[in-house]
Amino acid sequence: MDNKKKYQDIFIKSLSIDIKKFNEKIKYNEISKWDSIGHMSLISALEEGFGITMDIDDIVDFSSFKKGFDIFKKYGIKF
User: What one-character-per-residue DSSP string does 56-73 give?
Assistant: First the structure.
């Protein structure tokens, strides 16, 4: 599985998003499941799935699906 597919799958599963309703423009607090608790669940799943530990600034800055691509580049993850 490529990294983009893995990223998307973790995102969908962690936030209980209907795959038919998912799009890459999704942002924090735009869906009910992506609140502060959902955010930490998502971050935890992403860290585990990609074998990384994100800095606090990156966790706070993780505000959209697209923003995640920029943040993961810092950790050497290529899409």
Answer: HHHHHH--BHHHHHHHHH
3-state helix, strand and coil shares in percent for the chain, rounded to the nearest 5: 55, 5, 45
CA distance 42 to 36: 10
What is the tens place of the pLDDT at every residue in 6-48?
999 999 999 999 999 899 999 999 999 999 999 999 999 999 9
Find the Cα–Cα–Cα–Cα dihedral 15, 16, 22, 23, rounded to 10°. 0
If residue 14 lies in a helix (H) or strand (E), which one and from where to where? helix 3-14
Category of 16 on φ-ψ map: left (φ > 0), alpha (ψ -120 to 50) or beta = left
State how far the Cα of 67 lies from the Cα of 50, in Å rounded to an integer.
Answer: 16
